[in-house]
Fold this protein.
Amino acid sequence: MGNVILDVTDVNKHFGGLQALTDINLRVEEGTVHAIIGPNGAGKSTFLNVIVGRLTPSRGRVLLGDQVLTGKQPHEINQLGVARVFQTPEIFPDLSLLQNVMIPAFAKRDGQYECGIFKSLFGERKIREEAEHILEDVGLIADRDKIAGSMSRGDKRRLELAMCLIQNPKLFLLDEPTAGMSRHDTNRTIELLQRIKQRGMTKIIIEHDMHVVFSLADRISVLAQGAIIAEGTPEEVRNNPKVKEAYLGGESL
Ligand SMILES: Nc1ncnc2c1ncn2[C@@H]1O[C@H](COP(=O)(O)OP(=O)(O)OP(=O)(O)O)[C@@H](O)[C@H]1O
């Protein structure tokens, strides 16, 4: 294995009596796309929430490079280079698309969202140019002055991708990036993610759509009832009988 960027050791999470994650061990190699799949309620979102600091594990440790993430606040983890797109896009609905993409760049420069935009305008032009470049990349440049809240759901999700990309994260977490999208928008998003894959950004992607998973993933981990039941290349996972069993009692992927 090359450089490990994310190293998860023995992570457990319970909610009261419910064991949502059991002894999760996962290593993600720098520059790869690692998919996490599994039936509804398997623990996928819980796992992402542990990585980004929204949930504290009951036991275990998460490292980004040599930095310990466990116990840090979400904004601290974000500052260390972890960005995430959510199932429901988290955007600033009253601002333009361009402003939406510029804000995380100011926040990264100034250390926090709250005061970033009001701080010195030094570097603003550079940030604007970068934001425009990224809007072009995600196919939204023609709409840069539109109000974000007025865009379609698919466009909002692409906007949120752009807001993460401008941070140039070390690790990019995508929670069902194509959920609710038309086939056309899904394919555009796959193309976009393939393009950004070439830049070498490490990604973890949670996805139910196997077309998306098999188009993008270098490796796949399969979660079922809070435990990893299989891990390997897409071909290995596709042919694993335990995985077929976890999905609807043997139906093939
Ligand atoms: N905050 C919480 N409090 C209590 N139980 C929770 C909480 N969050 C998740 N759970 C439970 O933990 C289990 C794992 O949920 P999680 O949302 O991580 O699964 P998932 O694999 O992401 O599912 P889906 O594919 O449906 O999004 C479920 O049984 C869920 O009900």
